[in-house]
Amino acid sequence: MKNTPLALSDTAWSYLAAPGPGTASTVPQPTSGAPGALADAVNVVLGIAAWAGTAAGVAGVIITGIMMAASMKRGEGSEHFSRLGMVLGGCVLVSTAGPVVAFLF
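Above: the chain sequence. Below: its structure as tokens.
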């Protein structure tokens, strides 16, 4: 490396080390991806969230079915089909979240 004068002001000069040829290889190159321990922790959290979403979807379908059966006796069973559609739409979102994000990114 050689010293190169740089003007700091009209009266002061400073000699700073300027990079010489071949010093570009010493620049650190970060690797892509998360560290192993962090990736494992994130996968555990995402697995728990996926399991909870699936359990909530199953519970939603069961609860909607119970409400439909109870309402059928009174003759108002068709009102719950919109609720069932919302529950099934949520189930589709939970089950396809990973592949959709992997496709987009």
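The chain has a mean pLDDT of 78.
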